[in-house]
Amino acid sequence: MSSKRRAKRESKANPTRVSQPPRSRGARPLEDNTETRGAREIRAETKHARHLQNRVGKRYRDRLGAEFEKLQAALCIRHDAAQDEHMHAAGLGQKGKTGGSRRPINKTKIVDLAPSPIREPDLEATAASRILELQTQYQHNVLTQIGQRRSGCTTQTIRRRKEWSALPPSTRASFISAIHCLNTLPPQTPSHKAPGARTRYDDFIVTHIEQTPLAHASGLFLPFHRHLLHAFERTLRETCGYTDALPYWDWTAAFEDPRRAEVFDGSETSMGGNGRWVAGRNATEIALPDGVVKTIPPATGGGCVESGPFAEGRYFVRLGPVGYEPKGPMGGLGYNPRCLTRDLSPEFSQGTRPSAVTALVDGCEDLGCFVQELDAPGGVPGGLHASGHWQIGLTALDVFASPGDPMFWLHHAQVDRVWTIWQGQDLEKRTYEVWGTVPPSDNVTLDTAMDFGTVDAPKTIREVSSPVDGDYCYMYE
Ligand SMILES: [Cu+2]
What we know:
41% of the residues lie in helices and 7% in strands.
């Protein structure tokens, strides 16, 4: 007898018993063995419909109209039927028989007990739809702005940065192999300056380590990272044959548990899985650029990444750590080869829930409000930026050397996306808005220059303010 059927039979024989499936090492969500196949299918379909509902912006929902309604109606009927079956299997009610010994159940009540996310979209589903509306508005504004152009960045030439899960496997594979390629090319950083830098990829980490005190918790935070991403994307394309745009990781989609994010599924076309589970670890104390020390408790991993293209033995981190103990030699610039570590955290992922994005984009009229909320490192669970790092954990926790985890690029592309969507709500007012200081105290202006070490020439804030001018020609979708 199959284990599913055995579980069903056992639960009928002993209605109070709820059998627990063995917990797998990867700590995937637990499955209720008393749930019938029908209920499982419905759950999967409901999840799919919810995904659709989340992904489909208002404009498209309007266009789909009747088809979407039909799907919802079909799901509601099947949802009710599956719930009956589920309750029956769990010994909570009875279906199809009269005069049985079990307590008859009120059908309406069952539906109440299991509210469908389609009928009662929760706050986060509403916020997720709102983000897509905001993105659609931004896209419309930008495409209108460049619509009349004959040269420079036009609607024909604009590069579209897409979410990881929207990329075909071939694009994911070529992005991954371009990163491996950068790790085979010689560095341009002189070895006396950073003896730990052994590849072209490391040049980007050195630049980030060196600029961290200036480019975090400051008026340079968003502009500096925007251009670092651009330089990285360009290098992947020019030196490693990558032909697409930089992908981003939309952390709002898996805010309940990052272990469920496709980008971490550990397959060959993922960015690698979680770190190996290490029991009894201590918390990590990280030093933040604003002088705050933050305690990050152990989460669901803690060791080397075990699966995927960046697993132990297939990928090395050489620079850092700088932001926590035990620190690497020479302020993190010495040679310190080790595996990539992760510790995916369903606690810190709460900080990147959809409503945290809408609060920022809908709630902030000026850049000061926006940056302070986005980059509030001392908060609990932390601003969007910190929560993105902290939910990945370990290598990504190091404020200085975090680009050692290639997820850095996907996370920061998402941070840039949120900024871009915010700018795109009012291009005229927000594109060239500046805010903040360069530590310790000078106010930044559009002419403030940023240094990019060996990865690019210095840039001013003005040069990086508009994603569709100067060197830039990209949008998010
Ligand atoms: Cu950074």
